[in-house]
From TrEMBL:
SUPFAM superfamilies: Porins. Keywords: Cell outer membrane, Membrane, Receptor, Signal, TonB box, Transmembrane, Transmembrane beta strand, Transport. It is a multi-pass membrane protein. InterPro entries: Beta-barrel_TonB, Beta-barrel_TonB_sf, TonB-dep_rcpt-like. This is TonB-dependent receptor. Belongs to the TonB-dependent receptor family. Hemoglobin/haptoglobin binding protein subfamily. It comes from Microbulbifer flavimaris. It holds the Pfam family TonB_dep_Rec_b-barrel.
């Protein structure tokens, strides 16, 4: 289990594998703004072969995205994706896997440039293709994986139908990961080679990096659990070492519950992307170095056998040499990328509670109190300092019908200016309510109804941009 600020942003997605030779799932939903989305999944399991094919499409006429667009025309969105996964069990020790994915998306937006004039006839085109091949080998208590992958992205921004900014990005990776269980603990190790490439209309660049890492997981007397990990990365122009350590102390309570104290501390870095490096080369600006970060976190968890769960986390993260876009740099007058000389900081607390009131009603609450400042001590833009969520789910009709809702409160935010040269703008606090209902008609059919912002709250997430009002969506899911 990863804990701490260094784990922020890590999302582990596990695709459910089929249990039958042929399984078919389909879902359709439609609602406000002429929104329609649908998906189909075909999967199966044989004696040695597992497969899955997924198709999905989402399109919406959207709503007017910018307050400055007085014409009221809608800005739509279209997304279509397809993926396939094939897994072959060659033997008890060897497993082979292949994955493919393709995605196309179109996003309409306002306020782009046609020459030196602004236009609201703007379109962003996005295409992503990825492939991954992997082999997993198990021998005794040791697991190993070898993988090779490529991801390629093409992007083009059009203003009044004419391309204004077209780029291509590519990431090639070779990965090795090992894990073994020993009498004293567990050890994981690995290495990766990565090449990131960027190609634009006027420049192209490729950056290579090599990383090696290892982590030890152990315990003291079956009561205190710890991990210690280190990583070394070799970049084009310099090397970096990062580390991470965690500590956990779980205790069983007389009421059948569990109480756990935990903590973590670590360092990290982010290297500049090929686009950032190439852009600065074209602008005649000094090369960029990596961002560096360090973080610490302490937390307490309580779980009661009857279902009550509580967690409190205190954290602090500091980042130095933050890469920022600076309009005063470069030779074109449009700016370039620079690095902040100071240190930005994010510190605060997160509280989460969950439980049940009887056998049919479940509830959850989460709250975040954050103090996020930049290197000058000013509040960071677009980072809310307080966010609260309260959710309820009530089962009826022997569990066939579930009614749910989520209330969200967002407070204390500052947005970049909506107009060039203006000052940053403090946004109003807001609350919004979402509701949903799901009815299990049969084992094969599930009906759904959901409402977003049902109280039609007028709020803004970014100055100068509109948000959708109340919206209703209905759909169904079929599983065969």
């Amino acid at each position: 289990m990863m804990y701490g600020a260094g784990a922020g942003g890590v999302i582990n997605i596990i695709t459910r594998r089929a249990n039958e030779p042929l399984e078919i799932e389909a879902a359709i939903e439609a609602g406000r703004h002429d929104t329609r989305q649908g998906s189909v999944r075909v999967a199966g399991k044989g004696e040695r072969l597992h497969y899955a094919v997924d198709l999905a499409q989402h399109d919406s006429a959207g709503f007017n995205s910018r307050e400055s667009d007085t014409d009221g025309e809608r800005d739509g969105y279209y997304n279509q994706s397809a993926s396939a996964r094939l897994n072959f069990v060659a033997s008890d020790a060897l497993n082979l896997e292949a994955q493919l994915r393709h995605q196309d998306a179109e996003t309409e937006f306002d306020s782009c440039y046609s020459g030196f004039l602004t236009s609201n006839d703007c379109l962003d085109l996005f295409t992503q293709q990825s492939v991954r091949l992997a082999a997993q080998y198990r021998q005794g208590q040791t697991d190993q994986e070898f993988a090779a992958s490529r991801q390629e992205i093409d992007r083009d921004s059009l203003s009044e139908g004419v391309s204004s900014f077209a780029v291509n990005g590519r990431i090639d990776e070779l990965n090795y990961l090992g894990h073994t269980t020993l009498a004293a603990g567990e050890f994981s190790w690995g290495a990766e080679f990565e090449q990131q490439g960027y190609r634009g209309s006027a420049s192209a660049l490729a950056l290579d990096s090599i990383g090696v890492f290892g982590e030890w997981r152990g315990e003291f007397a079956g009561a205190l659990f710890y991990t210690v990990g280190v990583r070394r990365d070799q970049l084009e122009n310099e090397d970096h070492s990062t580390w991470r350590a965690t500590l956990g102390y779980p205790m069983s309570l007389p009421d059948g519950g569990e109480f756990k104290l935990r903590g973590s501390v670590g360092t990290g870095f982010r290297a500049p992307s090929p686009f950032e490096v190439a852009y600065n080369l074209a602008e005649g600006v000094a090369p960029l170095g990596p961002e560096r970060s360090r973080g610490i976190e302490v937390g307490a968890e309580y779980r009661r056998a009857q279902g009550l769960r509580a967690e409190l986390v205190l954290f602090q993260q500091r980042v130095t040499d933050t890469i920022v876009y600076d309009y005063s740099l470069g030779t074109s007058g449009w700016g370039a990328y620079g690095q902040d000389d100071g240190e930005s900081e994010s510190s605060g607390a997160e509280l989460s509670l969950a439980g049940a009131l009887g056998a049919q009603l479940e509830w959850n609450f989460s709250g975040t109190w954050l103090d996020a400042t930049d290197s000058s001590g000013e509040q960071r833009l677009l980072v809310p300092q307080r966010v609260f969520n309260l959710g309820l789910a009530h089962d009826l009709l022997d569990g066939r019908l579930t009614l749910g809702g989520n209330w969200q409160r967002v407070e204390d935010r500052i947005s970049p200016p909506s107009n060039w040269g203006a000052a940053s703008e403090r946004l109003d606090d807001y609350s919004k309510l979402d509701l949903n209902a799901r009815y299990r008609w049969s084992e094969a059919l599930l009906l759904s109804l959901r409402g977003e912002n049902v109280l039609n709250t007028d709020y803004r997430e970014v100055a100068g941009y509109n948000t959708t009002g109340a919206a209703l969506y209905a759909g169904f899911e079929v599983r065969l």
